[in-house]
Amino acid sequence: MAMHNLVHRAQGKTYRLRISNVGLQHSLNFRIQNHKMKVVEVEGTHTLQTTFSSFDVHVGQSYSVLVTADQPAHDYYVVVSSRFTSTVLTTTGVLRYSGSSGGVSGPIPGGPTIQIDWSLNQARAIRTNLTASGPRPNPQGSYHYGMINTTRTIRLASSAGQVNGKQRYAVNSVSFKPADTPLKLADYFKIDGVYRVGSVQSQPTGGGIYLDTSVLQADYRTFVEIVFENPENIVQTWHLDGYSFWVVGMDGGKWSPDSRNEYNLRDALARCTVQVYPSSWTAIYIALDNVGMWNLRSEFWARQYLGQQLYLRVYTTSTSLRDEFPIPKNALLCGRASGRSTRPL
After folding, report:
1. Is Glycoprotein one of the keywords (predicted)?
2. What is the maximum span of the chain, computed from C-alpha positions, in angstroms?
3. How far apart are CA 103 and CA 95, in angstroms?
4. How far is it, in rounded angstroms, from Cα 81 to Cα 28?
5. What is the C-alpha separation between 134 and 154, in angstroms, rounded?
6. Is the confidence at residue 337, as pLDDT, over 50?
7. b/e map 306-329, b = 16+ CB within 10 Å
8. Which pTM does this prediction carry?
9. What's the burial of 254, exposed, middle or buried (CB within 10 Å: 0-12/13-18/19+)?
10. Residue 335: helix, strand or coil by DSSP?
């Protein structure tokens, strides 16, 4: 973790801070000594303006907060510390008021460490501002995702184990093995033998881990429920390329159809990276309106590298340019796609 040493602020003014966790593994807690922070945006979604003294940022996530310089003109600690780790890692910076009459004083403000419920409740409290953004009279909340029937439920469970004596990580028992040709090229040129549609199941198998090039197919223009299930004792975060999705629910224990009774079907956040707490689940709704071969992966990079990822093939038989543009004529081709000719744009 690294932080700029000095941040200068003028007394009485309000500033917007953009805070991102670009780490490889750990969730972080962010706080500023003696100051409150008002969360106003999450990954492009305007939120209800909720005030916190500190808040968690999980791997791959970003937040915008408003901070008002409403304290005496001194220096104040800016603190980032790791969450859910046996050893708490901490780094500090300094917020310096213009005309500061002294350096930082007092102990570094403490924050939460391993408390899961605290973080879960905070995540639930950050919701979409339905009256913000968008052209009037149609604010961003006019898309009623909670009134659309889902056509399919996909449950994805993480796991860890040994394959051929080596550590691997998996989704629904499949540990991703890279192919010799980029999957989108294989898909576009209809090259057989690079991957198999359905090489990963859409429900947990409960079986042992094995290697394969994981591709899960879904139909274009469907509205899908995906449930991430985390039976392990670490916080995980998941990212899907090419999409934003609504985070409709998260809780401890095992997911069941009855869990839908607690979904937020009105003002859930739309985002592209979501956390799943230890021994917990997180559910999302997603409109599959973007044709392609999209990577769904753990943001814990060691796990991603060792197999905790898959590709979601959003498929249609249509070849209309309204659905997907052809490959650029100057695209670099490799693997089994080498030497193929591309159609001009």
Report:
1. yes
2. 71
3. 10
4. 6
5. 31
6. yes
7. bbbbbbbbbbeeeeeeebbeebee
8. 0.93
9. exposed
10. helix
